[in-house]
Amino acid sequence: MQVTELSAEGLKRQFKIVVPAGDLSAKVDERLAELAKTAQMPGFRQGKVPVGLLKKQYGQALFGEALEAAVNSSTAKAIEDRGLKPALQPRVDLKTLEEGKDVEFEVVIEVLPEIGKLDFSEVELERLKAAVPEKDVEDAISRIAKANREQKPVDPPRPAQKGDAIKLDFVGSVDGTEFPGGAAQDYTLELGSGSFIPGFEDQLIGAEVGKTVDVKVTFPAEYGAPELAGKDAVFKCTIKEIQEFVDKPADDELAKKNNFENLDAMRKAVADRISQDYAQVSRTMIKRQLLDKLADTHKFEVPEGLVEGEFNAIWQRIEEAKKSGQKVDDDEEKMRKDYRDIAERRVRLGLLLADVGRSNSIDVTPEELNQAVMREAMRYPGQERQVLEFYGKNAELKERLRAPIFEEKTVDFILELAKVNEKSVTPEELLKAAREAEEAEDEDSPKKDEPKE
């Protein structure tokens, strides 16, 4: 094998590789000899088929196998001998291909950039920290109590009021014709919940058990069923029962009903959950800060092939958005430039985080990967077993969960080294800052803070 370097510009390397014809012939002969030991053909005993006959029938296929193996092995050796770290699969271009002659091909490789030693001790960040007000906890407890309230038939009987739950049968029609999905029996509806078409629930206030009410409404223009959108409809409703809600007090009994030892334990759990929610908002913001600073202060060259792949993935989403009717910028040339900048940023951050992770032996353990699978399963209540089995049978899909875990661990590692100043704020100030940060980021949508590992 003869390797000649043709060019080395930036991160691109180009080589010419020549594989002697004799090497390929030897590989073909070796495979023919192996095949001859077990080959069967009409008129010959097993293992007694002449090699010449086998070569006539299988020679072309065996030459293709030998060629592919030679290209792969010689390319890998050229890369290994020069200590290169490819960013993508090498691109191979066959120049001469004729059986019995030397094979010549060119290989173009994009290599990973040398990022160098990184010092994060000078990176200064601000972490917003919000304490949980007692009022937020009490409001949450009140919501739990409301969710646990009981229903009882009104006694003595009276017309329905806002806030009541009524059981009814109804049949909907447009222009006198019933439509699919417009009827139900023994349906329970809370008046004032806003769960039905605007105006529907209001017309049932004052209804009485055993009586029929014609509810006249107009379906919204953007209604999900096109055949009903904007149409006038009449629902014939028969009231079967009126119930009122009985509030439950916030006490130990309520706590036990929700699997807590007592009210204090439930209050603490609620406070912890709210605190975790605030901490997650704060974490998202400081991570965004960190990625912005890393992107602004580390300007190394990135492989064009990776940028192109990332840009194509972004642009595909833009095209899908157009097809679904979403409004996008009319200036396509500007959009392409902006999204290519975002693609380059993502790739650069991904390479930087990957380098930090490798350099500091950051890894994702099997336990962490299994926990991620479990979290995915919990997103589908009632289908957890099927989700777990699905991931168990799809190793590649399971591996996709590794990248975000690796990224979070690497970000945590950098945050430990950076100068992080904590600032106490109210929950309102924290959420306002988070909204403003998201609004600013939406201008660069798709989200720019999604580095590619």
Automatic annotation (TrEMBL):
InterPro entries: PPIase_dom_sf (IPR046357), PPIase_FKBP_dom (IPR001179), Trig_fac (IPR005215), Trigger_fac_C (IPR008880), Trigger_fac_C_sf (IPR037041), Trigger_fac_ribosome-bd_bac (IPR008881), Trigger_fac_ribosome-bd_sf (IPR036611), Trigger_fact/SurA_dom_sf (IPR027304). It catalyses: [protein]-peptidylproline (omega=180) = [protein]-peptidylproline (omega=0). It is found in: Cytoplasm. Residues 426-453 are annotated as: Disordered. One of its GO terms (cellular component) is cytoplasm. PROSITE patterns: FKBP_PPIASE (PS50059). It is an enzyme of class 5 (isomerase). The keyword Metal-binding does not apply. One of its GO terms (biological process) is 'de novo' cotranslational protein folding. It holds the Pfam family FKBP_C. Its EC number is 5.2.1.8. Residues 426-437 have a biased composition (Basic and acidic residues). Keywords: Cell cycle, Cell division, Chaperone, Cytoplasm, Isomerase, Rotamase. Residues 163-225 form the PPIase FKBP-type domain. GO terms for molecular function: peptidyl-prolyl cis-trans isomerase activity; protein folding chaperone; ribosome binding. Involved in protein export. Acts as a chaperone by maintaining the newly synthesized protein in an open conformation. Functions as a peptidyl-prolyl cis-trans isomerase. HAMAP family: Trigger_factor_Tig. Consists of 3 domains; the N-terminus binds the ribosome, the middle domain has PPIase activity, while the C-terminus has intrinsic chaperone activity on its own. Belongs to the FKBP-type PPIase family. Tig subfamily. This is Trigger factor. It comes from Reyranella soli. The gene is tig.
